[in-house]
Amino acid sequence: MASRVLKTGENQITTKFSAGHKAVDVVKYRSQLDTIVAHSDGKVVFCQTGKKNNKLAVGNASYGNCVKIDHGNGYSTLYAHLALVYVKLGQTVKAGQEIGTMGNTGRSYGAHLHFEVRLHNTRIDPTPFLEADLQQHNVTYKVYTNKWLAPVTNCNDKDSNGYAGVVNKRMTALQAVPSVGTLRYRVHLLDENRWLPWVENDADYAGNKGEAIDALQMQLIGADGYEVQYRVSAAQNARWYGWCTGLSDKTGDGYAGVFGKAIDCIQIKIVKK
Q1: CA-CA distances (angstroms) from residue 58 to 44, 54, 108, 178?
Q2: 219-264 pLDDT, tens per residue?
Q3: Residue 77 covered by a domain
């Protein structure tokens, strides 16, 4: 995916986000320089020029030539150590607009982009946003086995926090709430071989506690430009099936799961169409 802050290049992170470095340092892939562009639409609220390299600089001076953009949704981005700045204080900019060139000004030890993302003025890890929108939508969801398990919101099958469910324990109910729009979903009961009625968000849950689920369908409503994706794993063979976005129950592409095989774990995410 293309970089959201470099005009022509792929991101190469040289210094990661940490407690002592609440930003990422970026160059163009293979250690090259590049033109810097605005991550998203916004207004320039801080602009510093005329700075040279100064390894003893502190405070705002340590940023060297820099630009800060307010995006109007609680997010702001800051681009530091620039060689040249192309925008002015108070200027409105568009996503992808050139705002400067990568440089080595301020407290810097080599040409690169120091990139910060702030949410309500708190610096957060910019890494997920180097190639994605600032506003990240998700679904908080939980499943019932013999009890309701803890809800999850992320989507990473490499650890136990990245999915809802327990391997080899049959899922018998699901509850899911999106951060945007309305999530409409229903489940198919294995033993009764039938679909249960549709439910929406946290008004209810889908399933009959104690009865295994072998398939499910989801639809995200009222979230222009976004859709829900979901996938499940089967208790019998401990494997994840493919991601699903369809809604037709007449084809295997229209639901997640396999009839006759109980589901044990699920992942749900909201993505841009």
Answers
A1: 22, 9, 11, 42
A2: 999 988 888 999 999 977 778 898 898 676 555 558 999 999 999 9
A3: yes
Contact of 40 with 73, CB cutoff 8 Å: no
User: Residue 122 and residue 128: Cα distance in Å, rounded?
Assistant: 16
- Lowest mean pLDDT, pick from 15-19, 34-38, 159-163, 167-171: 159-163
Question: What single-letter DSSP state applies at residue 262?
Answer: -
The residue range of the domain holding 181 is 139-272
pTM for the complete prediction?
Answer: 0.58
Domain count of the fold of the chain = 2
User: Does some domain include residue 4?
Assistant: no
Where on the phi/psi map is residue 115: left (φ > 0), alpha (ψ -120 to 50), or beta?
A: beta
5 three-class SS: coil
Q: Do 177 and 124 belong to one domain?
A: no
Among 129, 156, 184, give the residue marking a domain's end.
129
* SS3 call for 256: strand
Is 249 part of a structural domain of the chain? yes
**Is the per-residue pLDDT at 210 higher than 70?**
yes
144 in any annotated domain: yes
Per-residue CA distances from 111 to 31, 35, 67, 105 (Å): 9, 12, 16, 8
Give dist(CA 155, CA 207) in Å, integer.
22
C-alpha closest to that of 177 among 156, 198, 211, 151: 151
The DSSP H or E segment spanning 120 is none
